[in-house]
Design brief:
The complex is a heterodimer of chains A (114) and B (111). Chain A is built from no helices and 11 strands. Chain A has 114 residues and is mainly beta. In chain A, a hairpin with a 2-residue loop joins strand 6 and strand 7. Chain B is an all-beta fold and 111 residues long. Chain B contains no helices and 11 strands. In chain B, the strands form 2 sheets. In chain B, strands 2, 4, 5, 6, 9, 10 and 11 form a 7-stranded mixed β-sheet that branches. Chain B has a 4-stranded antiparallel β-sheet with strand order 1-3-8-7, with no helix packed on it. Chain B is globular and about 40 Å long. The chains are: A mainly beta (114), B mainly beta (111). At the A-B interface, strand 5 and strand 10 of A face strand 5, strand 9 and strand 10 of B.
């Protein structure tokens, strides 16, 4: 119940295309869903996050879509660029109980072809 | 703010030796997390602290691992004795409002 399932494991997209990464969760107590971007040799960096009271959040080329009833959320990268090539992790967090225990997905390695 | 600072960035040690990883969280953050990252297991939460108190250490793999947070600006993760299977990248992260910020990590190689 604490798992966050992420797919696909890897993704290859042409420059200018849309990259879509999906995550699913079981624990309905999760109330914060961030996405992290990690470049080789670096730590994960917070990209964008959403709370379940909204269905979509957009920041620049990055959009999170959230489906509370299906317990799924996804990251869309519009106009994908070679510089977006990185590993992306979704995560889920339960904040109301004060546990603040992040549960991470297994990661998606994105490669954007020039 | 300089962000979360970890040291050393790289550590190579022989099996059986003690290894200490260090972390300075972002000032004002009251949560600190230690993660381990490997290709096989991804990002694993080892332990986390709230206001310097360990809250959940269920991810610590064995008694060979221990973590301390003597004050709000410093934490250590110790492995004693180290084994080759401990080779991984260890990340420290800190948070205050749910937004966790990661350090650059320590790449540990145990030979």
């Amino acid at each position: 119940q604490q798992q966050v399932k992420q797919s696909p494991q890897s993704l290859i997209v042409q420059k200018g295309g849309i990259s879509i990464i999906n995550c699913a969760y079981e624990n309905t107590a999760f109330d914060y869903f961030p996405w992290y971007q990690q470049f080789p040799g670096k730590g994960p960096a917070l990209l964008i996050a959403i709370r379940p009271d909204v269905s979509e959040k957009k920041e620049g080329r990055f959009t999170i879509s959230f489906n509370k009833s299906a317990k799924q959320f996804s990251l869309h990268i519009m106009d994908s660029q070679p510089g977006d090539s990185a590993t992306y992790f979704c995560a889920a967090l339960e904040t109301t109980s004060g546990t603040y225990k992040y549960i991470f997905g297994t990661g998606t390695r994105l490669k954007v072809l020039a | 703010d300089a962000g979360v600072i970890q040291s050393p960035r790289h550590e190579v040690t022989e099996m059986g030796q003690e290894v200490t990883l260090r972390c300075k969280p972002i000032s004002g953050h009251d949560y600190l997390f230690w993660y381990r990252q490997t290709m096989m297991r991804g990002l694993e939460l080892l332990i986390y602290f709230n206001n310097n108190v360990p809250i959940d250490d269920s991810g610590m793999p064995e008694d060979r691992f221990s973590a301390k947070m003597p004050n709000a600006s410093f934490s250590t993760l110790k492995i004693q004795p180290s084994e080759p299977r401990d080779s991984a990248v260890y990340f420290c992260a800190s948070s205050s409002t749910g937004r966790a910020f990661f350090g650059q990590g320590t790449r540990l190689t145990v030979v």
